[in-house]
Amino acid sequence: MDLKFTSSRKYISISVPSKSQAMSPHIKSVDDVVVLGMNLSKFSKPAQFFICVSGVFMFYLIYGYLQELIFSVEGFKPFGWYLTLVQFGFYSIFGLIELQLIQDKRRRIPGKTYMIIAFLTVGTMGLSNTSLGYLNYPTQVIFKCCKLIPVMIGGVFIQGKRYNIVDVSAALCMSLGLIWFTLADSTVAPNFNLTGVILISLALCADAVIGNVQEKAMKLHNGSNSEMVLYSYSIGFVYILFGLTCTSGLSPAVTFCSKHPVQTYGYAFLFSLTGYFGISFVLALIKIFGALLAVTVTTGRKAMTIVLSFLFFAKPFTLQYVWSGLLVVLGIFLNVYSKNMDKIKLPSLLGPWKKSVEERKSRTLSQTV
């Protein structure tokens, strides 16, 4: 908008910036959702849903397959921490590359916060990877589905929270499903080890804490996903490297992997790459459609991962896996329903009875009138 006056007066120019100019230089629109360089905002809602779900299933199914494939290499099971070290190294490189693609490269979150997040990330991924040396892959996935249990326990003892009957029922279903699945695994699996259960349980506890810490740090300091990935995984890489060096666990792992470079480093690169891409689609799904739909999709993905694990890798099977798995799925549904009671309306069992009572009252009233 330009305003001009007579020659005796000064020339006044008023310019109104456009919507895209008023924002940060590297953001085109407030509603832009970019995944792997693809702007999903240009597509319709059904197309966005199809792209996100396809990305989640494709990358995470490959991720799970490669993870189990690496641990199926004979002699690799003791080197779960070394795999986590390699994975953290690749994630740091991916985060650095992504950070270079945006204009604002400043670190916004304090270093002390990143040191805490890195420690929790090491606990989550390191213990989870190491547990595969002692557990069947489906058992590990079932445990990962039950993050609600340590979250609720921590909420009760640390924050003094109180939960409704639906949350308690969800935790109870998950707990019973886990116990049943673990008992079935101990019965049919020849290499079952209680150490794996302890490791994956500790990983769940760290995972339950890390989500809250990451969310609080990113909202408080307005940090980006690429910044979070770069600094948390690079610091975690140093933690694991220091730990393996002190425990003399680095040299045997390097020696073993150097003899099988394709089956270890090659698979680990693809394993890390698919995991990095998968989380990008999960975040996009949450941003566009909300956490309710994202949880539903990721739960379906985990169920598919378990099915494929039994199909591609030889392992004993029992129907107890099915029933206990369905019990865990019921717990997940109750947890999602508890958080979205205002959006999900379940049919009431008393509905038909109440309706019949009202009809009888109306008939009685009409007869008296």
UniProtKB/TrEMBL annotation:
It holds the Pfam family UAA. It comes from the Eukaryota. It is a multi-pass membrane protein. The chain crosses the membrane at residues 47-67, 79-102, 114-135, 141-158, 165-183, 189-210, 230-253, 265-285, 292-314, 320-337. It is found in: Membrane. Keywords: Membrane, Transmembrane, Transmembrane helix, Transport. The keyword Thylakoid does not apply. InterPro entries: SCL35B1-4/HUT1. GO terms for cellular component: endoplasmic reticulum membrane; Golgi membrane. Its main location: membrane. GO terms for molecular function: 3'-phosphoadenosine 5'-phosphosulfate transmembrane transporter activity. Signal peptide: none annotated. Belongs to the nucleotide-sugar transporter family. SLC35B subfamily. This is Adenosine 3'-phospho 5'-phosphosulfate transporter 2. It comes from Cyanoderma ruficeps.
